[in-house]
Amino acid sequence: xxxxxSAVKKxxxxxxxxxxxxxxxxxxSVPVTEALGRAPAVDIVSAIDVxxxxxxxxxxxxxxxxxxxxxxYNLEISQRIPAGTAPAPLQPGTAARIFTGGExxxxxxxxxxxxxxxxxxxxxxxxxxxxxxxxIRARAQDIKAGEVIVKAGTRLRAQxxxxxxxxxxxxxxxxxxxxxxxxxxxxxxxxxxxxxxxGQIYNSNRATLIGLIESLGMVPVDLGVVPDRxxxxxxxxxxxxxxxxVIISAGGVSVGEEDYVKTAVEKVGAMAFWKVAIKPGKxxxxxxxxxxxxxxxxxxxxxxxxxxxxxxxxxxxxCQGCSEVAxxxxxxxxxxxxxxxxxxxxxxxxxxEEGVEIYPNQSSGVLSSACWGDVxxxxxxxxxxxxxxxxxxxxxxx
Length: 398
Known about the structure:
By secondary structure, the protein is of the alpha+beta class.
């Protein structure tokens, strides 16, 4: 069995050809406000300085520190500068009433906070402690013209959208959303809303996968439930290869007599690896169907959630053109004890003020464990965990 780290490395390495194909196929221009979660294919450079001119960080009075000292800190007010107006040069020996964001007039080098000054009859008694440079935001303090502000492959978050807007960029060239064809296997599966007969269960994996894919800014292509038949599985794989950039299935990748996915992939494509030393979710397959990457997830609901987050998510993000796909691990003291296991275990847990705790039932069929918490606790192969040990914690959120 592959280790988790080896499997992730192999998956990310396989993502590059798809990124290259997508780059050749072109990009799309979208409004910045619609680019959340997307990845630009080229570096984005600012054409302007931010701020474009020195401005006040406070409501107060702008003046030349030397003039204030010479005038015994009593200056006539010569102009008023609200934010958004262009000031006149400051008359020597005077002060300007200025507001937060107001442009510093030529000739001024200091802003004193209004609460430390006294204004009366057109004059202001300035703060004696104010020094040159106080409360002034320098031009290009944030961004310089010609500077790369967002590198190619950066997954755009809300703060990057704001940054792009701050330099006047209204639209951004990004990779088109990845299309992920999904299907579930199993004669026992029934879609929600339909009557449930003996021996049947509702299909939760479809909704889970759709939600996870959409949360990455990608487009799910839902191919429904496939019966446990080899011919039907081969047919849906070929259909998925035509409609998706990537194929993800749930179920049917184990070694049971009714598990046909691995065999079907080998007949219509090729298998790169099968089985990863991860719990939950050992039977995980990766290969290609007609040059379309394929990931076969196990069928148990908690296994689907875990293997998608740990293995499929970084692969999909790499396929989308994202440069940073590795999850950031945290450290937290364990509030539980657990014996070591032969595989690397991803325990569904949640952070508390005291550390991290885990859901009492870690069965691969207990999806409520994923809803209860917000992190995985990563238990390394063979290593026991004692109360108080610092453990690796992998947040669900990117």
